[in-house]
Amino acid sequence: MGRRQPLRPRAGARETHRIPTWRPRGARRAVLAHDRGWAHEARSAWLCGTGLAGLLFAVDLARGSLDWPRGCCWGSLGVLLAAILCPQRITAGDGWLAARGLLRERRVHTDLLTRVRRSDGITPRLVLGDAGGNRVELDPEVLVANPLLWHLLDTGVRRARASGLLREGAAPLAALARRVDDEGARRLLESSGLD
Q: What is the pLDDT of residues 24-50, one digit of tens each?
């Protein structure tokens, strides 16, 4: 394996992107935006899990067959359902976007993005990849519901595009930008009573 080549912008592109500066291990950048609906969704996930466990406990108790191993089984099923339903916590700052799941946090440098694609399936996902090999998958609805998150991502995308790093992903980003603008206009009309 040879030496890794440094990143260079395309010929004719302006060199406007920032190279991430060194930070001590454990130091965090300031969070400027987060998913405002995350707390409600996480609370709903835990309520569903505890509701399932409570229902299973009640049915087993009514039948008279509740014992210690069955109780542990019903409790673990409730916790498993809550863990499956718990959404990612999306946060963003100047030049980065992060998605924190139950076990780990994935972070990309938005001003060093190299690819953006839309993954369709049961739930559509937006997949972001940066020059460092980092990758984040997130639900596009989070960006539509949180315009500040979208603004920070869009600012980083513009920097990456200006530096020549971002070459694929114009179509999903343009479609998402239209949806964010349409939703913002709809909210503005509703709040002013012109709906």
A: 454 457 889 999 999 999 999 999 999
Instruction: For residues 170 and 151, give the distance between their C-alpha atoms in angstroms, rounded to a whole number.
Output: 16
Query: Is domain 88-189 annotated with CATH 2.30.29?
Result: yes
How many Å apart are CA 127 and CA 137, to the nearest integer?
4
- What is the H or E stretch that residue 90 is in? strand 89-93
* Exposure of 66 in the CB half-sphere (CA atoms within 13 A): 16
Contacts with 109 (C-beta within 8 Å, 6 or more apart), sequence order: 20, 95, 96, 130, 131, 132, 134, 156
Give residue 22's pLDDT: 43
Proportion of the chain above pLDDT 70, given as a percent: 85
* Closest-CA residue to 99 (of 140, 67, 59): 140
Are 89 and 99 spatial neighbours (Cβ–Cβ below 8 Å)?
yes
Q: Considering the entire predicted model, what is its pTM?
A: 0.77
